Each structure stands twice: as structure tokens, then as C-alpha cells.
Amino acid sequence: MQLPSTLAFLVDTAADAAGADRFLAELGAHLVNDGVPLVGGALTLDVPHPLIARRTWLWRTEDGEVIEALGFAPGGPLAALEANPAGDASRRWLAGLAAGPAHEDIVGLRPDGPLLGWIGPRPFTVGEIDRLREAARFAAAPLAALAARATLEATLDAYLGKRSAARVLAAPLRRDPGETIQAALLYADLRGFTALSEDHPPAEVIAALNAWFDRIAGAVHVFGGEVLKFIGDGMLAIFPVIEESPRSACDNAVRAVSAARSGMHHLDEERRRKELPPLPFGAALHLGEMLWGNIGAADRLDFTAIGAAVNLASRLEGLCRPLGRTVLISGALAAETTVPLVALGTHALRGVASPCAVFTLPEQ
Q1: Distance CA 349, CA 334 (A)
Q2: Which of 61, 256, 278, 351 matches a 20 to 30 Å C-alpha distance to 111?
């Protein structure tokens, strides 16, 4: 006997859906095709994410549109943006689709698992409710597969960054020759961190580190870069060159470090008001090629970037203290950016064969 369209989809292809949004849209379309009157539907999943507690997708029958509503983690930095729980927002959005009062059926797959919700233009009949609940039962397995995939992707994104996570998922799980890419590199490091660690309780040190990384990494992400590594109190980030010219990547890197400098200035003012020491830092920018891939032991890998360009960026940052500057920029990157810079002459870098032309940002 031929399965109804909905069950055939759930059994045969649903687990391969490109994402939860496409799963919801296709499931809703199949239910309508099988005669269930729907105005829209919603799917809510809990996700492991530093900022997001859950994700809700909302589907509209009329045009197949799917939008997303986020529920932020309680106590997290974005929690204040969520005036109402995502579930309430979902119901209001769906209710606005119905001609007259909304008629909703929420079908939970398990107490701590996904929630499927459907809304119709009239009350559902007993037979229609049975079909919706049957669909929910068959949806449990493909949704578990989708949730596991989303969990893996979110975890890798949080620990590696989006581009690096995609590269890890696409490549074999072993050491490889890597990929050579051109990028603007940003290497940044707190100054005096050892003294800070010795003179303050661990909780204060961790809070200071998190505040520092929020400013520097937040600026990197705003301008399209990606954090590759947190190295103690330091950070390595890249702005990959994805166009023929590296100008856009270099401009974004300079703007990111400028924004981080402003953010740290405001943070230091806030710390002074609390009678806490400031957090001086140094940052260096360079443009070059790096090898991007898996290195390490045969059974313990690290996805990272290596190469002469990475080494130069690190050595250039080491000049910040002797030159009395917060930000230093190599001649290679300075030649490609449209942002006005101040020349500081040519300087030798430890371990780098050729002297490096050095620039900095104008004073604030």
C-alpha cells in the first residue's frame, strides 16, 4: 500500500533536509497535500550555543515563507533583547495568519525535545488531529538526526569559528596538507597579564579575560573576520581574501582593530570607576599567505594556521610595547588598505629575515 505523501517524506527523505527550516516547510506542504487544512506551523529546537537557548522556525502556508525567531540564553549578553519567549512570538505570528480566531495544536515529541505546532483556519477535526500526531511521531527520528547535525555544527562553530568549522566538516578527519589561503591576519595580546593573574583572584582574572575577548573578538566578527585561536590572553584572527583584490579584507581588518581599540578605551574607563586596573594590549595586522588545516598527532588534531605570515604578525605585535603603540600594521597590509595610516619607519623583527615597514592608526 502506498504511504500518504507526509509519511513517505518522513520515512524516506526528511532526515536529509538541508536544515530545520526546510524540514518544516516540506512537512507542512506534504500535510496540506494530504488534506490537512493549515495556515502555518512552527518548529522549536533547543540548540547548544553560547548565546542562543532555542531556535523557532515559523512557516506560512500561503507563500511557503519561513522565518526564524531566536530565544536567547538566560543571563547571557543578548537575553535583554528577548522581550517575550520565542514560543509566544510564534503563536502571535501564526495567529495573525488565520482568518478569525487561531486554532492551534501543539504536539511535543518528548518533554525536553522538539515541539511541532500547527494552526488552521478552523478547529481541527478528530481525524486531522490524529494525522498531525501521527506525523509528529514519524517526525521524531528525522528531527533527531537534524538536531544532532545542528548540535555538531553549533559546537564546532563555537570552538573553531564558522569558516573553520565548515572546513573541518568537509575534510577527512586526519592530518592533511592543508589549504594555502591569503588573508589579513590580526594578532592581539594583553600586556601585563602575568602580573594581573598574580595580584587578583582567579574570578577577577577570568572576568577581565572575557571582557577583553568580547571587545576584540566582537569587533573581528562585526567586520567579517574569524577568530582562529585564543592563545592564553592572546588571539589570532583572519580576514580571508575572497575577492581578486585584498583591499576589502584589509580595510575590514583595520576597521576591526580600530573598533576594538575604542571598545577597550571604554572598558578601561569603566574599570577605573570600579578601581580596577586598565587592560593595556597590543595588536598587529599583516597581509600574507598561510597554511590552513589539520596538524598534530595522528590521533589528536588541531585545526589552525601556520606560516611565515603568522610568525610576522606575532613578531610585529611584540614591537607594540617598545614603540609605545597599541596597534601596528605591516607595510604589506598598509599598501592595500584605503584607511589613512601613520608611518613609523622600517624595523627589524626577531626571527624575520627582512626589515618590515611599520604603520599605525592615527591617535584617537
Answers
A1: 17
A2: 61
